[in-house]
Specification:
The protein has 18 helices and no strands. The protein has 424 residues and is mainly alpha-helical. The chain has a single domain, classed as MFS general substrate transporter like domains (Growth Hormone, Chain: A, Up-down Bundle). Helix 12 packs parallel to helix 14 and helix 14 packs antiparallel against helix 18. The termini are far apart. InterPro entries: MFS, MFS_trans_sf. Keywords: Cell membrane, Membrane, Transmembrane, Transmembrane helix. It is a multi-pass membrane protein. One of its GO terms (molecular function) is transmembrane transporter activity.
């Protein structure tokens, strides 16, 4: 009984049937996607034995997110998010099947990966923008926490399946499994989600209050909105740094394992299983993490401590990838998801008619450093060892994180001092 007591706060959300179905849909989609993503990353490296091709795969996978973000935002805000999520899931199921039957060709895998990256662009903005349509605004923090926990459980299962598949060379089976999960997710979103892009609170107050949507809904309006909201702007910047730091380990881990032990890339699945556990723990802690920073009234600094953990963990993994590496990799992924709830609630609190664009802009900014480092680091690995490269690339993030930590501590100290003066 005591074990499940912390989860009682999520009970009211589970009574919201449409939100529960959204969680179910996303869990199915995440389960297969996690298994496929892990398997393909290691499989591409095994086929090519080239860090350049591996880096190219990662760039192709994430580059559309940065290059075509404005299109994704327009789709999410203009068309029914129910239709958008359903169509994306069904197209991903189809393309994954095609990939499964051509798994022997690196070229075809790269082409289909690019198509998948383009097609799934509106997926995250549409999913995140749909949550306010299913729960009340004051429940957004808990809603994001619950969907994060459930999808993290799906990631744990998916990574375990991927690790098994890699160790037993059954990548094609993983691809077919993923196609099935996409299809199931598409059917759930089609039958259970609302067609109209309308927030839950607004639907209940219709006829009593005016809409809080902005009169204009273009890309420039969305950018101006971000610039004017300090907390949102700082959290987007923090996410930009966190994703950039993560990219260093993400792109160099497979070649680091390979250089440490022969055939080391096959252990990548185990590392991703550890990452999935870290995501689960991080998402579970994301709700109290947000509440803590809200109570301190320092929400915009919620990413600082996670950035410190990420940057130092990356250096530690370089020195000891097989002994300390798994533990540090767990800490790294816990830290990665700690501030996620802070940013998600701020993004979902934006006006409904620009929400998709704002989320797409945030996703694109997350991808800038990720894509840059993913493209640059494999090239630099020809001139410097992977271990030294991982250490060198982490140092700027260590410096930035320490500077931001100083500012955060100074801000808290000044706030306490001002409160003391008020009491006096």
């Amino acid at each position: 009984m005591h074990l499940f007591h912390p989860f009682k706060k999520y009970t009211p959300l589970l009574n919201e049937k449409r939100f529960t179905y959204l969680c179910l849909s996303e869990s199915f989609s995440t389960l297969g996607n996690m298994a496929q993503g892990i398997a393909l990353a290691a499989y591409i490296f095994t086929l090519s034995q080239s860090i350049f091709i591996f880096g190219l795969y990662l760039i192709i996978r994430f580059a559309p997110q940065f290059l075509l973000f404005s299109i994704a935002g327009n789709i999410v805000d203009k068309y029914s998010r129910r239709f958008t999520l359903t169509i994306i899931n069904l197209l991903l199921a189809l393309l994954t099947c095609v990939m499964a039957f051509n798994a022997h060709s690196t070229t075809i895998i790269l082409i289909i990966t690019l198509l998948i990256g383009i097609i799934e662009l509106p997926y995250h903005p549409a999913l995140s923008s749909s949550i306010p349509a299913l729960v009340k605004k004051d429940q957004l923090g808990l809603a994001n926490g619950l969907i994060g926990i459930l999808t993290s459980i799906a990631r744990v299962i998916g990574s375990a399946i991927a690790a098994f598949g890699l160790l037993n060379d059954t990548v094609i089976g993983l691809l077919i499994f993923n196609a099935v999960t996409f299809f199931i997710a598409g059917m759930i979103t089609w039958t259970k989600l609302p067609t109209a892009n309308e927030d839950s609170d607004r639907a209940q107050m219709k006829g009593t209050e005016e809409s809080d949507d902005l009169e204009q809904s273009g890309l420039s309006t969305s950018i101006t909105y971000i610039q004017k909201h300090s907390v949102l702007k700082n959290l987007i910047f923090g996410s930009f740094l966190v994703w950039g730091c993560l990219s260093i380990t993400d792109v160099l881990l497979v070649p680091l394992l390979n250089s440490t032990i022969q055939g080391g890339e096959k252990y990548y699945g185990i590392y991703r299983f550890i990452a999935a556990l870290g995501m689960l723990i991080g998402n579970y802690l994301a709700v109290p993490w947000r509440e803590r920073y809200l109570s301190l009234k320092r929400t915009k600094y919620g990413f600082v401590v996670p950035l410190v953990i990420l940057s130092f963990s990356s250096i530690g993994i370089a020195f000891s990838p097989l002994i300390l590496g798994p533990i540090l990799y767990l800490f790294l992924w816990i830290a990665m998801f700690l501030p996620s709830n802070l940013l998600n609630v701020e993004l979902q609190s934006t006006p409904n008619n620009i929400r998709g664009k704002v989320i797409s802009i945030a996703d694109a900014l997350d991808g800038i450093l990720f894509i840059l480092l993913t493209g640059l680091l494999p090239y630099l690995s020809h001139f410097i060892s992977v271990k030294k490269l991982l250490i060198a690339a982490s140092i700027p993030f260590v410096v930035i994180s320490l500077i931001l930590t100083y500012r955060f501590i100074k801000s808290v100290y000044i706030n306490k001092k001002n409160k003391g003066l008020e009491l006096t």
